[in-house]
Design a protein that fits this description.
The chain is α+β, with helices and mostly antiparallel strands and 210 residues long. It has helices at 2-6, 24-35, 41-57, 93-106, 110-114, 157-168, 172-183, 187-203, and strands spanning 13-23, 61-70, 80-84, 119-120, 124-129, 139-144, 153-155, 207-208. A 3-stranded mixed β-sheet has the order 2-1-3. A hairpin with an 8-residue loop joins strand 6 (139-144) and strand 7.
């Protein structure tokens, strides 16, 4: 919200990745160590001073944030996304560029998405959980290997089917046909369902545009 306010009306894309940060205790320890690396009396005094300062601010914990501000890659509209990720460490330039390319496709017209080959992120892993003795999974989730722009999330059976369909289809349009046949859905209904899934998946790091 602070960035949106500061950028009020600016013709830029805004992408914010956020991850859990340290507690106020660890933050005070880290900054105090910068003042007295020998961890002596100066360090002890600084820890107390920093901690009292954070208490006065009401700061109990922190977040790590990476903000990407760039010129829009297309005419009309701007991207504004906030994506929580498990950790900021390990996210390199290549993973970030791939995510930004996925966002560009997510904001493209329907025809461009339908003609594109969209794949699940290579770092994605599908996990099905079931209760002992149950024949069907109670929950299906997708997790990601460290260093990628994505956070673990649950998906429906239809979502898991679409991930498999997209991984093998030459285009999103082909995945629509597979989904329509499997779900016995009308063409327009299936197309809208798949397009919504693909757009949301591209914007949340679940899908990539190779």
């Amino acid at each position: 919200e602070a960035l949106r306010t500061a950028l009020a009306g600016a013709a830029v894309d805004l992408v914010v990745l956020s991850a859990p940060g340290p507690s106020a205790d660890l933050e005070a320890v880290a900054y105090a160590a910068l003042e007295d690396a020998g961890l002596g009396a100066g360090y002890r005094a600084a820890v107390g001073r920093y901690r009292e300062h954070l208490d006065a601010l009401g700061a109990a914990s922190f977040s790590r944030v990476l903000a990407v501000i760039r010129a829009p890659r297309r005419t009309g509209g701007r991207i504004a996304v906030e994506l929580p990720v498990p950790a900021m460490a390990g996210i390199g330039a290549a993973a970030l560029d791939r995510y930004l390319a996925a966002l560009d496709l997510a904001s493209a017209p329907d025809a461009a998405i339908l003609g594109a080959a969209v794949r699940p992120a290579p770092e994605a892993r599908i996990r099905a959980e079931r209760s002992p003795g149950a024949e069907e999974a109670d929950a299906i989730s997708v997790r990601f290997e460290p260093g990628y722009v994505g956070a673990e999330r649950q998906v429906s059976e239809a979502g898991a089917f679409l991930l498999d369909a997209l991984s093998a289809a030459a285009s999103v349009e082909e995945a629509v046909a597979r989904f329509a046949e499997a779900a016995s859905a009308a063409g327009d209904e299936a197309r809208r369902t798949v397009l919504d899934f693909v757009r949301e998946g591209l914007s949340r790091g679940l899908l990539v545009a190779p």
